Amino acid sequence: MEKRVTFNERWLPYLLVAPQIVVTLVFFFWPSAQMIWQSTLLEDAFGGNTKFVGFDNFVSLFNDSAYFASARLTITFSFLVAAIGLAVSLLLAVMADRVIRGATIYKTFLVWPYAVAPAVAGVLWGFLFNPSVGTVAWLLHNVGIDFNYVTNGNQALLLIVIAAVWNQVSYNFLFFLAGLQSIPRSLIEAAAIDGAGPSRRFWDIIFPLLSPTGFFLLVVNIIYAFFGTFGVVDALTKGGPAKATEILVFKVYNDGFRGQDLGGSSAQSVILMVVVILLTIVQFRFIERRVHY
C-alpha cells in the first residue's frame, strides 16, 4: 500500500521550501542578474564612472585571441580532470568494495582528501613538486626527470590536473562505493555461477548498473572543473607560467580584480555560465539516454 505525506495547512509546504528559495534567490539569481547587467557597462577601477556600452564587452572578448586560448585550455583541463578523476575513483571504489582485511581503514583514508580546501590542496602539491625543496621533485630529478612547473607550462598544467583530481577523488569515491554496495549480490553471484569471470561481471553487470551514479558524477565533475578549481590554480600557479594554466574561471578573477576590467570580467562570467548550462543540457539530453535506471 502506497503511503503519501499530506499537509493539513496549505502554507506549510511553501514554508518548508522557503529557506532554499531564499538562498537560491540571494546567492544565485541576484548575483547572476548583477553580473549580466555589469557585463553591459564600462567602468573605471573604482566604479565611479560608468557608461552603458551594450554588447561591446562581448565583442571585445570574441576578438581576443587570449580568451580563445584560455577557452581551449579550459576544455582540455576539464576533460582531463573529469576523465581521470572518474576512472581513478571507480578503480578505488571497486578495490575498496572487496571483502578484505582493513577495508574500513582504507575507505577512511580515501575520504580524507575531500576535507581539504582546494587552495590548501594546491599549496600541498606545490610543496611536493617545488623544484627547490619538493620531495617528489627531488625524487624525479634523481631518476633523470627534470620537473619544474614554475617554468614549464605543460608540467604546470599536469600538476594542477593532479591536484584537482586528488581533491575531488574522495567525493567520486563515496558515490561509486555507495552505488557498488547497492547492487544486489545475487546478480553477481548468478553471473559467477554461469562462468562469467571478474572482468565480464564488471563490464556486463556492475558497470551498466552504475551508469546513473556515473552520469551524475560526470555532470558534477565538469562543473567542478569549470568553477571549483579556482583555488587550486590560484594557490599553485596563479595562471602561469606565461598563462599556461589560466583557465576561464581564473581569467575572470585575473581580469576583473587584478586588471580592473570589471565589465569585461562580467562578460566572461556570463559566457562561462551559459557554456556550463549548455553542457549540462547536452549531457542530460544525449548522454542520459545511455543511462539505465
TrEMBL record:
State which residue ranges cross the membrane.
12-30, 75-96, 108-128, 156-178, 205-227, 267-287
InterPro entries linked to this entry: MetI-like (IPR000515), MetI-like_sf (IPR035906), UgpAE/MalFG_permease (IPR050809)
Per the record, GO CC terms? plasma membrane
Membrane protein topology class? Multi-pass membrane protein
Question: Localized where?
Answer: Cell inner membrane; Cell membrane
Tell me one GO biological process term. Answer: transmembrane transport
Main localization is: membrane
Record function comment: Part of the ABC transporter complex UgpBAEC involved in sn-glycerol-3-phosphate (G3P) import. Probably responsible for the translocation of the substrate across the membrane.
Q: What is this protein called?
A: sn-glycerol-3-phosphate transport system permease protein UgpA
- What organism is recorded for this protein? Enhydrobacter aerosaccus
